[in-house]
Design a protein that fits this description.
Distance between the termini: 26 Å
Order of helices and strands: HHHH
Structural class: mainly alpha
Largest sheet: none
Shape: elongated
InterPro entries: DUF423
Helix content: over 70%
Membrane topology: Multi-pass membrane protein
Keywords: Membrane, Transmembrane, Transmembrane helix
Strand content: under 5%
Number of strands: 0
GO cellular component, one term: plasma membrane
Family: Belongs to the UPF0382 family.
Amino acid sequence: MSRLFVLLAALYGFTGVALGAFAAHGLRGRLSPEYLAVFHTGVLYQLVHALALLGVGALALHWRSRLLAAAGGLFAAGILLFSGSLYLLTLSSLRVGPVTPLGGVCLLAGWLCLGIAASRAQSRRH
């Protein structure tokens, strides 16, 4: 589980930086300021949650928890749904229904699962 979440964090981190650079250098002047802001929101949420996935991967080395695994899965799905739908909207003007809010709910649920997992974790200090 830990390795998967770290690999996903690296993938989302890499693509988040690449997409941010693409927006700054390739989309300025091609998108309206409003759409450029929407694209940047997708990049911000992707990068923040890539770090959250990295944290989940690190914690999974010490905690065995279904809630921690759920948090990682929800973060990964939330990034794809939330940020992915914003990229799709800005680059194609295609609206795909309530995908963005569903992605946001996944991200919120991921944080909730992470918090509950932390509150239930047993300390390894003696």
